[in-house]
Description:
The complex is a heterodimer.
Chain A: H1 2-22, H2 36-63, H3 69-92
Helix pairs in contact in A: 2-3
Chain B: H1 2-29, H2 32-61, H3 68-73, H4 80-86, H5 91-112, H6 121-141, H7 166-194, H8 201-231, H9 242-267, H10 271-294, H11 309-329, H12 346-378, H13 386-409, H14 417-438, H15 447-478, H16 482-492, H17 494-518, E1 521-527, E2 532-535, E3 538-549, E4 560-570, E5 573-578, E6 581-584, E7 602-605, E8 607-609, E9 614-621, H18 624-635, H19 642-655, E10 660-668, H20 670-688, H21 694-713
Antiparallel strand pairs in B: 1-10, 2-3, 3-4, 4-5, 4-6, 6-7, 8-9, 9-10
Helix pairs in contact in B: 1-2, 1-6, 2-4, 2-5, 2-6, 5-6, 5-7, 6-7, 7-8, 7-10, 8-9, 8-20, 9-10, 9-12, 10-11, 12-13, 13-15, 13-17, 14-15, 15-16, 15-17, 16-17, 17-20, 18-19
Amino acid sequence: MEDALAALLIFVVLAVAVALVTQPLRRDRVERLATREQLRREELEAAKEAKYREIRDAEMDYRTGKLSEGDFRALDRQLRGEAVEILRELDRLP
Amino acid sequence: MPILGRACLILALVACAYGIGAALYGARAGRREWADSGRRAVYAVALLLTVAFAVLELAFLRSDFSFATVATHSSTTTPGFYKGAAVWSSQEGSLLLWAWLLALWSSLVLFLTRHRMRDVAPYAAAVLLGFGAFFIGLLVFAASPFHVLAQAPAEGNGLNPLLRHPSMMIHPPMLYSGYTLFTVPFAFAVGALLARRVDAEWIRSTRRFALAAWFLLGIGILLGARWSYSELGWGGYWAWDPVENASLMPWLTGTAFLHSVMIQEKRGMLKVWNVSLVLATGVLAILGTFLVRSGILDSIHAFGASTLGKPFVAFIALLALGSVVLVVSRRELLRSEARLDSFLSREAMFLGNNLVLVGLCFVVFWGTFFPLISEALTGEKASVGPPWFDRYTVPLALMLVLLSGIGPVIAWRRATPANARRNFLVPVACALVCTAVLLPFGVATKPLSLAMFALAAFVLGTVGQELVRGVRARRAMASESAPVAAVQLVRRNRRRWGGYTIHVGMAVLFVGVAASSTFQHVRDAALVPGQTQRVDGYDVHYVRSFARVADDPDKTGAIMTLGAVLDVSKDGRHVGTLQPARNYYPGSPEDGPVGQFVSGDATSEIGLRAGLRKDFWVAMQPDNVWLQRAIAKANRRDPAKAPLWLAGIAIGYIKQPPPASFRIIASPLVTWIWLGGFIVIGGGLIALWPAPDPARRRVTATLRARVAQELGRA
């Protein structure tokens, strides 16, 4: 009795596992993994977020006294310039 | 049901093999459906291993001794609470837990990243399935948890009494969760290198999982230390034991990675270093498992010699060699995008912190493997003890605490001397005040401890100053009340404030370690009731002995307990009452009708009075010669009345106790270690708490603007 139950459970588990794994292969349309443009866009989006975080951190550093006003202005100008370059490149993507 | 468990393991191995092939084909050919199928193979492995683990867990809970592993690691007398945890006290069960947790965490990570990193994720899935295949292969071919005995014994050997401690229920799953989660950034790093995509995106996608691994491994280490302190009967929390060290090494390199990764995210620097750190952490996580499972080094925690050493060594060699080849072959892609502007910058401090952490890891590695190194070179196995470790780790720990104080208050890129002066004034003043306050208490005789206390004050000063300035800045910008501003400050940058909280916790923890290890008073004494021992100005008076038979309030399965009631006082004032004891567990019927009840392992039950200022810790050992004589005498009597004779021994111990050996320890600030640990956990939770998704935030902002616009039009 226990063996029959075990066999049934093995069959059920196997069926679920096979259904789970083969589901994407049963799709009607074939999809490409990712285009070069999509990858570049993801890369630039990540760079943009990092640059924005850097700008916010610099502002916090200035407000908490870690940067002098002169240093902050120069750094902020440079970081915003770098962010603009990233946005330009993002806009150029098709 | 062992056949169901075995079938699940075999199917899981097949799923791993299929998933590796499908994911790699999908990645190479750019076929998304195959990459998705490979990812889903990870889910299938998780499902199959969940069923396998449930089968084994049920066997333990039902005391099904037809399973060999249940018969050797549990018994009907093992309390139900601990039967569930007995699964991972065995070699096979522990490997199954590893593989199961790996599959669960891998599934979660691959599910959460299924729409991102589409070029890297299939390779990462293949690597994670490779890890799974190795561990499931061990379970199928070398250490099956579903091995069935031809004839099931009526009773099992029982769970090692040392493991009958609440923290042992969660310590191994926490450690293993840490180890297995550290394979996630490893897998994504390999994926990023194979896909030639080494920007900050793979770090951004997996940093949270590295943090979760660090967090869980840290909790596991802390629980292990607590178990050692309250269960092992030697009075310490850290012994530089190989198995303890095995968990510390990946934690140290993981800590280094979590710091240096910020430099890559912000500046595009240290790419080679970061990828090497994460690969090393993954390899060290497997090395840690190898040290526990192989029995290659003597340890109180390891599970004895086994045959798993060779496959583990081969696997670790493959991982290490593969990592080196991959990094070297991609060195052109891993060039830094920027240079270090100044040594007076946060980047430089992070770099210093990384060097110290890696240095600490190297010291721990060298000390741990010294017995093997010395045996290879001289033919003799020599080991190094705690003094050797302390000689190198104490100065490195001091530097680490110093850097953890400097980091938060120094600017990115370049700090000017004027700013540095302004930012360090308060923290340095805190350190000086702390030194001045402690000097009259004789702390100056221990300069390294004094330095640690001063540096911890410096860290508290820097974080406190950051909080005050941050709140002030927010109030100036948003006109908030101070508490609201503090909460908003943390909410807006959980990662930073989680990190600062962790720094505070580590400083508190190090103060506890420095104080308790330097200013500890230890006395070993043999006492009879009525006698008193003086320790650190306290009088420990042995009031009376006590004994219990078949009365086990902690539900550990102990048959007999022999103990002592101690009264602790200072200058005639009662401080507390302690009841250290020794628990005796059942052994083999060959030890006689009475002896069989108590001839198994024995454990120390600690008498502990913990306080913020001082811990009073006592372990006792009843006279074993007296006990063996009493048992031998009882064994010769009528076996039918064996329980009565055992009760007689207990009564004899109460009425005329022989001298008992006591180890009495007065340690200052041990509680600070656990308190610091809790603060670290709190900081980890702050850092781990999910921040709103930026994409979702942008959409919400756009929708809000539209609502405002349309309302305005109406």
